[in-house]
């Protein structure tokens, strides 16, 4: 196989580069391409564009390198993309059908010269063999970006247009593969208004690090200050789709017959003119999307597909020509467009001029300082004076007629030196109060002003008499404006205006959600394409937060609760009863912090704080005792509850039944089920009356929940020979019924014969069930008072 090469090497080419050229020239694969795009896509030569597109999408999903792990997947995917690029373009498809051309710049009837390869979706042409001294394409020199230039010019400009940036370096031969596609794409997208940039990673390492680009070649997009990497095969159609995907999806609204009136009538809320573009394409043209993004702060955009039957009414309503793309611009009047443009080949400069000349309403509302600066610029020269006629009004229905009359007056005064605007007083109160000097002026009110400095200094004059839109008001305002142009000193008042409130500023929550969404989407892309180097800052932040959170949880789980300051014992109350560590044999979920149990007496003084006003979730465990059994029961009680004293929600008290027998009776009477469980069948045998019998509550324990108004009851357990038969405790849900023939006198005599300290033998088990929440609860409507003392009998 013979190959004719035209080498134009400068003397600066190194021997290593010359050796590489010789190797490439000797490559036996160089020659005419035998790739048939129809065979690659599996379609016939008579296939329609819809069939070609369908076959391409199916094969692209099947052979995408990220999903198909076959070693040949990358080469096959590149062939599929290249074949679709040829067949989707009617001109290139016709050239291939007639001449077998694979490239646009290939001459007909001539064998394909140069080097052609499908490695990594890049290809060579004759330009590969022409090296400059730096190894960089001369056409890229005007797009070269530097760190300072990027941050001062490109980054702010990315909020007005997207940028397509190529990352390259000297002697990057892989970068040369993409040059033909890159040139074609740049030529097309730059004409539409896309910014182009090239970064040499060898000279601009600092800028490359800022962009997150660490390998060559790379292509990335920049919009709104956010960087997005291109991860697909480098073909022109993919690059175009990538730029289109950077733009906001809802920037242009699809308009139909049923929605065009609503679209045009939203100018009062949006405070912007509206543009309708008519074309026969199913999708919104990229040119129009780019223009909508550039002027999103000034104009609203809608697109009408002329090929749909649902848009015939709006086309007929405005007499739109279907032979060429048309743009209609509407301001306050939704019945008639303020400006019209129509051209077969719509160019970006024409669109920019059309929108720039109509980017404001005839009478816009001042909603932020930026709009105020553009409408009413600061005076620079005498011949460039701009007077701002400002209507201070309200959005209430009562002011609608006056506002409409002001817009009509402004439409009849189209002098370049005058700018008309209005503000809502409640939205811009600092501005209105400054101009009206805090006087209770009746609205609406017209103010004529001229700005003298960017710091807010203005000269102004109020139009006397207010404004209601009458013919007299219009005549008086017209005379004031004519006098103003003759005598500039007519504006006699001077004041410094505050900065306007930004009525369009998003709420903090919305800004935070948008930022979070950007981080999550960027993290997803980095995970999808295994871009670990760029993920490190986000991953480091996430893992640091998780480590701190888990560490805090672990520390709190294994640490003891903080020591509470010991409360000072009250002088009238007995000192706290102490129990040694020998009481620790009882099981507990939390070890005690002290070597004693603090038990206070429940009296009429401590009753409110220890029961009625007890904190939610806290329980007061009360031991009922008598004077005779006080010391023995307190020691036994302290030993049984010692292992539970580390729980901060439990408090311990004792109640002297000799003083407060009536309180115990009242409490049990409020809960009938507790009385039945206490001594079932006893009331049937009561022949002597309530005065003949006095219940023995010694050794009972109450768990009182003051907030939820319920209590749990522990009754003494009798040990010895009758332990099993006479046990009566709440932990078993109530004891079995004793024989109704057993007399009360025998019950009282039995309690006195058994040793006192054995009454609390099962208390620790009852406490365990209390902590588990499995004990029966007896609810009361209210707690009985403790103010009465039982008299000594």
TrEMBL record:
<feature type="region of interest" description="Disordered">
    <location>
        <begin position="723"/>
        <end position="753"/>
    </location>
</feature>
<comment type="function">
    <text>Plays an important role in regulating the size of autophagosomes during the formation process.</text>
</comment>
<dbReference type="InterPro" id="IPR036869">
    <property type="entry name" value="J_dom_sf"/>
</dbReference>
<keyword id="KW-0325">Glycoprotein</keyword>
<feature type="compositionally biased region" description="Basic residues">
    <location>
        <begin position="737"/>
        <end position="747"/>
    </location>
</feature>
<feature type="compositionally biased region" description="Basic and acidic residues">
    <location>
        <begin position="724"/>
        <end position="735"/>
    </location>
</feature>
<dbReference type="GO" id="GO:0005789">
    <property type="term" value="C:endoplasmic reticulum membrane"/>
</dbReference>
<feature type="region of interest" description="Disordered">
    <location>
        <begin position="561"/>
        <end position="593"/>
    </location>
</feature>
<dbReference type="InterPro" id="IPR052448">
    <property type="entry name" value="DnaJ_C16_autophagy_reg"/>
</dbReference>
<dbReference type="Pfam" id="PF00085">
    <property type="entry name" value="Thioredoxin"/>
</dbReference>
<dbReference type="InterPro" id="IPR043361">
    <property type="entry name" value="DNAJC16_TRX"/>
</dbReference>
<feature type="domain" description="Thioredoxin">
    <location>
        <begin position="132"/>
        <end position="248"/>
    </location>
</feature>
<dbReference type="InterPro" id="IPR001623">
    <property type="entry name" value="DnaJ_domain"/>
</dbReference>
<dbReference type="InterPro" id="IPR013766">
    <property type="entry name" value="Thioredoxin_domain"/>
</dbReference>
<dbReference type="InterPro" id="IPR018253">
    <property type="entry name" value="DnaJ_domain_CS"/>
</dbReference>
<protein>
    <recommendedName>
        <fullName>DnaJ homolog subfamily C member 16</fullName>
    </recommendedName>
</protein>
<dbReference type="Pfam" id="PF00226">
    <property type="entry name" value="DnaJ"/>
</dbReference>
<keyword id="KW-0732">Signal</keyword>
<keyword id="KW-0072">Autophagy</keyword>
<dbReference type="InterPro" id="IPR036249">
    <property type="entry name" value="Thioredoxin-like_sf"/>
</dbReference>
<feature type="domain" description="J">
    <location>
        <begin position="36"/>
        <end position="100"/>
    </location>
</feature>
<feature type="compositionally biased region" description="Basic and acidic residues">
    <location>
        <begin position="562"/>
        <end position="573"/>
    </location>
</feature>
<dbReference type="GO" id="GO:0006914">
    <property type="term" value="P:autophagy"/>
</dbReference>
<feature type="signal peptide">
    <location>
        <begin position="1"/>
        <end position="32"/>
    </location>
</feature>
